[in-house]
Amino acid sequence: SGTLAAGARTPLPRAKVEAVRTPFAAGILHCLRNRELRVWMLVIASTLFAPNLQNLLPFYVNHVLNGLEEPVLAVLWMLLVIAISWPGAFAWALIARRIGKVRAYQLTFVMRMVAFTPLYFAEELFDVYTILFAIMFGVCIGALMFRRSILADVVDYDELRTGMRREGLFFSVMLVVERFADVPGVTVPLSVMAATGFDARLGRAQPASFITAMRIMFAFSMIPCYALSFALLFLMRLDNRRHRLVLERIAELRGGKRSVIDPLDARTAIASPYGVQSNNVADARHRLLLDNFFAVELRAAMPPRAATAAA
After folding, report:
1. Terminal Cα-to-Cα distance of the chain (whole angstroms)
2. How does pLDDT run across 8-25, given as a tens digit for each residue?
3. How many CB atoms lie within 10 A of CB 245?
4. Alpha-carbon dihedral sign for residues 108, 111, 117, 122
5. Where are the alpha helices (DSSP H) in the chain?
6. Tens of pLDDT, residues 232-259
7. SS3 282
8. Would the CA dihedral through 229, 234, 240, 243 be positive or negative?
9. Contact, 293 vs 280, CB < 8 A?
């Protein structure tokens, strides 16, 4: 209540309150005007269209690499992949500082394609192919943090253009994209397994058609999707240097500057978006759990009596 009251001390004219009352669907469409968000959505969608091999990994381990006959080794092998992901995340953080998040994420797609291809020839749980895969794939899992980290940079750029912090809306849009794109990544491999004769009751004695299909899926099926994601990332202009400029421009506009040059397009000038919504940026002392909600948005969402009392 203290935060609500603090954010609502200075009443705005009703016309200005209505001007920022945006329906959710309209807000999504407005977000999609952000070119960087559109590119990032395509990258994530093309990545998730690849077969969801994390879900298929137990089938590959058990039925192709004799994991059913050596269950302890199978568990140790999968734990090895998970264990490597933790130092892998720290390693990617250091790499991203040197070459940028976008280029680091591109590198992960190259590593994935290199890591999966030898699995076509793997025969046992701990041979040279599977050990190489476990190391490289574990490192790539550690890079999953880039999905959210790069999107957070896109949110900063959106604030520069609009004056609003909309993490909730951006991450909601991305979550919907991920869920829809993940559907073929799960259903297509399961359909292939059923079509090639997989039967859980057979245990290790699966038909040769199923074993071959699993080898092909793990070794080659994701390469087109990963290659497309790799290429799309060249369209992302928001590298580390430009992101720092975005933060600097936001600070200048918050400080009262009337316009700045767009860090992603030097030919474009951005007028200050903080003029109409002068108290959009609340004091830092009043930005705890509600730091993504501006005072004008809070009053617009409150019932009329509560809004009048708060004012």
Report:
1. 13
2. 334 434 444 334 444 566
3. 17
4. negative
5. 2-7, 14-19, 24-31, 35-49, 53-63, 71-99, 101-116, 128-141, 145-162, 167-195, 208-216, 223-232, 240-254, 295-301, 304-310
6. 999 999 999 999 999 999 988 888 888 8
7. coil
8. negative
9. no
